[in-house]
Amino acid sequence: MSAALPHNAHIAAIYHAHHHWLQGWLRNRLGSASDAADIAHDTFLRVLARDVVIREPRALLTTIAQGMVANFYRRRDIELAYEEALAAWPQPLGVSLEERAIVLETLVRIDALLHTLPAPVRQAFLLSQIDGMAQGEIAERLGVSLATVKRYIAKAMLLCCFAD
C-alpha cells in the first residue's frame, strides 16, 4: 500500500484496476456471470477487511477468489444433497424458505467444521452418523483400534456441538 493513499483509497484503486479482470476470470471458471459478480464482490469485501500492504493485487485476488469458488461449489453440493433428501421423503415436507435457509446454513457450518478435522477423524464420524456403521465396523474399515474410533467420534461430536 502506498504511504500516500489511505487503505480504503488504495483498495478502491485496486478495485478499479482489477475488478473487470477478476470478474472475467471467475466467469470462465463458474460459467455464470451472476455467480462471478457475487464472488468478485465478496472477494473485494475480504480484501477491504484486510489491513495489509498489497504488492501483487491479482495474486491476492486470485488466491482469495479460488477459496471462495471452492466454498461456492461445496455449498452447492450441500444444497443439492439437501434437496435430494427432501425429495426422497415419502410424503412432501412443508419446509418454509426460512427453515430451509437455517438448515442449509447449519449444514454448511457443520461441513466447514468437519473439514478442519484430520481426514480419518472426519471419516469415522461420517461413517457413524451418516452411514450408521457400528464403531467396530468403522475400526476395521479404517484399520484402527476401537478406542481410536471412539476418540475420533468424540472429537468430531465435540467440535460440532460446542463450536462458537
Q: Which characteristics define this entry?
A:
164 residues; mainly alpha; 0% strand; extended
Verbal overview:
This protein is mainly α. It contains seven helices and no strands. The protein has helices at residues 7-30, 33-49, 57-88, 97-114, 119-129, 135-142, 146-162. The mean pLDDT is 88.
Summarize this entry quickly.
It contains seven helices and no strands. It has 164 residues and is mostly helical. Helix 1 packs across helix 3 and helix 5 packs across helix 7.
Instruction: Give the termini separation.
Output: 34 Å
Assign a percent range to the helix content. Answer: over 70%
Q: Mean pLDDT, as a whole number?
A: 88
Shape summary: extended
The biggest beta sheet, please? none
What structural category do the secondary elements indicate? mainly alpha
The tally of strands reads 0
Secondary-structure element string = HHHHHHH
The tally of helices reads 7
> What is the gyration radius calculated from CA atoms?
21 Å
Beta-strand proportion: under 5%
pLDDT < 50 stretches: none
Structural topology:
Layout: H1 7-30, H2 33-49, H3 57-88, H4 97-114, H5 119-129, H6 135-142, H7 146-162
